Amino acid sequence: MGAVYAVIGAALAATLAGIGSSYGVQAAGKAAAGVTAEKPELFSKLFILQLLPATQGIYGLISAIVILIKAGILGGDYASLTPDKGLIYLFAALPIAIVGLLSGIYQGKTAASSILMTGKQPDLQAKGIQMTAVVETYAIFALVATIIIVLMV
Question: What's the mean pLDDT in 118-146?
Fold first, then answer.
């Protein structure tokens, strides 16, 4: 049963953070498409802003892999994984799963606003990146929390 809990945790980390990233990239992409239709020369500046919300999905995947390795599931050595330890892995996944979901969505909204700002004043792109990166900070905190908890087991 411990392995089941660990796999559920890994799946939640990858899935929920991935959903947040997908939403965020989509929201930013819609804004970028609109601005690019009017100003195609800004595409590369806008594309950078659209990519920023993708990181939560990467963090979720990294967390899932770390959980699966540490729990012994990827190595096939999970027979001794107790239900208690499996639950710890499940709960360790929650910071990146929940924060990855929400910060991906909110980072996408911030990126979309930054894209619109860049469309009006292209020299403000760096400020838009900074604003969008502030939301990223919380996804990084969640990734660190998840990894620290996993490594303590």
Answer: 97
What total of structural domains would you count in the chain?
A: 1
Q: Is 25 helix (H, G, I), strand (E, B) or coil?
A: helix
Distance CA 111, CA 52 (A): 8
User: Hey, what amino acid is at 120?
Assistant: K
Predicted TM-score (pTM) of the model is 0.93
Rounded mean pLDDT, 92-121: 98
Instruction: Tell whether the torsion through CA atoms of 64, 69, 71 and 72 is positive or negative.
Output: positive
What is the domain-level CATH number for residue 12?
1.20.120.610
For 46, the token pair is 């806008």
pLDDT score of 74: 87
Nearest CA to 117 out of 130, 106, 99 is that of 130
Residue 2 structure tokens: 């411990």
